[in-house]
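Listing S7. Sequence submitted for prediction.
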Amino acid sequence: MSESQPLDAADFDLLDQIRDLHETVDPMPADLVERSLFALASRQLAAEIARLQAEQPVAARSTEHTRTLTFEAHSLTIMVTLTEAGRGRLRVDGWLAPAAPLRVELRRATGSQITTADEAGRFAFPEIEPGLGQLLVFRDHPHEPWIVTPAVAL
């Protein structure tokens, strides 16, 4: 086994070329740092995780774009419809099944908004900025776990 030689200018030039090639072929997602910090800051230890089961665009009139997301946990299904609300904003309409008047939080890296679902399980966030977010649904009983969705692009 031979001793390794110190790196010279040609070695550093080659390493720079490999780095540039890697960044071109497989660049780091622009929001990776934000998503990582968002996930690390989560308080989800006592939560039941809701998995994203379906995401689909919904046909809409005119140029309005709508997406529907469905999350399923063991004890609750959350369906959310995202609709363009104008001025670069979105409207979030959601439904809980089984229906219950539970507190719902829309958590974002920039802060949270809280509302309460009605008796039919319906809730809304009338105007939000697009970006990464997740929903938390809080139970009435403190010993029951709350439900948390994965962070998704809204």
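Caption to Listing S7: primary sequence and predicted structure tokens for the chain studied. The mean pLDDT is 84. Helices lie at 9-25, 32-40.
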